[in-house]
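ok trying this again, last paste got cut off
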Amino acid sequence: MASQPTVVLHPLSGYSFGIKEAQANDEPSVQARMARLQSEFSTKGMRESVEGVLLVHEHGHPHVLVLQVGGSFYKLPGGTLKLGEDVAKGLKRLVNEKLAPPGEDATDEGDFEVGELLSVWWRPNFDNMMYPYLPAHIKVYLVHLPPNKILSVPRNMKLLAVPLFELYENASRYGAQLAALPHVLARFGFVPQPE
């Protein structure tokens, strides 16, 4: 019988949070984002996107670090890989672009460690709905955090530590991808570290 893989969770109190200049939001609405994706597909073809699940704990309960854009759009840190870019290096670059403190080289790989592939998603027809089956072009990885780090969030976003129980079956608020995280993370045993 195989043993359950474990994930070390560091306390939320070990992280400091700052603000940096706003990052350009490519689009003001979900509909504008879908239109941009359709336009890019016609010129560049299907691109591969990667997103990272960053976990911490508060009082021993796992929380996911989620970016809030605007009042009601939530997403994981990540984005589109450059053509031919290595998945692990690209995800580290994208997480650093979103969360590296001002003055730190956002193109540096930093001290994030890309871990296990958690899920794959497919978005057909430039629709906001994503489905968990192949062919996949959105891959979600577990990203292991160091015990202490300064995370700086663009001024036009918020970084929230959302407990897993709040994400569970809450697709109406967080979307299908985030609401599925409690299921895809259920195969791991969490090991909260002391504060």
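PB: full thing came through this time. The helical segments are 30-44, 87-99, 164-167, 171-174, 176-179, 181-184.
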